[in-house]
Amino acid sequence: MTPSMITLIVVAGIALLIAIGYINHVVEHNKVEKARLKIELNDRIRRSSEVNETFPGQLMTPALKVLLTRLELNASQRLLLLQKSDSALKARVAELEGLIAQGESMPVNNPPRPILTEAKAKDVRFQLETLHGQITRAAKDRALPANEAKQWLREIRHLLVMLHIEFFNNLGQLAFQQNQPGQARLAYERGVQYLRKQPDQAPYSEALKSFEAQLMRANALVLSNLEPTSDEVNELNEGLKTDEAEGDWKKKAIYD
User: Fold this and answer.
1) pLDDT tens, position by position, for the chain (256 residues)?
2) How many Cα atoms within 13 Å fall on the side-chain side of residue 83?
3) Quick check: 41 and 75 in contact, CB under 8 A?
4) How far apart, in Å, do the first and last CA atoms of the chain sit?
5) Is 0.90 surpassed by the pTM of this model?
6) HEC states along 177-227?
7) Residue 197 within any structural domain of the chain
């Protein structure tokens, strides 16, 4: 065997080892990427489903219901390509496709969830943030047209304002019921300030007028509570009469 042949064999062996190493790297990378994509898609399915099922009924609309179902369906279909033998996933995809076929006549069964505490308001705000992320990602993946995604992002901002309107109004009404006009005033002050900060106040003009009227009502009640009652006035007058009588007695004692 000549030196040149030995050299060729060595070079071929090195090239084969490099090729094997590269193939193993590609295979391993594909496995990792597939596992990562499965985790991501399952997370997106879970998030879309949770918002769809638990979003407060008073804020849910048929159009929003359809959107959330579409987002879940898209992620489920992509996951099914990776898990072709998953019968439960196949059944869920078929169910989602049937729901979407109904369009906006799809049933909206979300029960109303009154927003009465800061914690409840934060929960719903987190749901809106989750939905914002899902829409953004769907647009990036071209699962949702860019124009439609922009419209929905505007709708999310509107829903956030509606959330605050309900929250501040509920706080104020609850305070009135509990005879706490000071707390009601605070709630409506926050509501007025929030609405006045909105870039476009026109859609919320009626809500702003209502908040301002309720704020005036709360202010009037607070001021009336500060005024002395008729009994307090009578007690004060009696006190003054007593002081005057004592003063006259003291004067008489001095001059006598």
Assistant:
1) 677 776 767 677 777 777 777 777 677 667 778 889 999 999 999 999 999 999 999 999 999 999 999 999 999 999 999 999 999 999 999 999 999 999 999 999 999 999 999 999 999 999 999 999 999 999 999 999 999 999 999 999 999 999 999 999 999 999 999 999 999 999 999 999 999 999 999 999 999 999 999 999 999 999 988 766 555 455 555 555 555 544 554 444 444 4
2) 20
3) yes
4) 150
5) no
6) HCCCHHHHHHHHHHHHHHHHCCCCCHHHHHHHHHHHHHHHHHHHHHHHHHC
7) no
Contact 45, 79 (CB under 8 A): yes
Residue 75: CB atoms within 10 Å: 25
79: in domain? yes
C-beta separation of 188 from 231 below 8 A: no
Query: Which among 245, 12, 198 is positioned nearest to 253, based on CA atoms?
Result: 245
The tally of domains found in the chain comes to: 1
Considering the domain boundaries, does residue 233 fall inside one? Answer: no
96 burial class (0-12, 13-18, 19+ CB within 10 angstroms)?
A: buried
Q: For residue 59, tell me if it sits in a domain.
A: yes
Residue 172: closest CA among 120, 227, 210, 126: 210
Expressed as residue numbers, the domain containing 84 is 45-107
**Can you tell me which residue has the tokens 């906006």?**
104
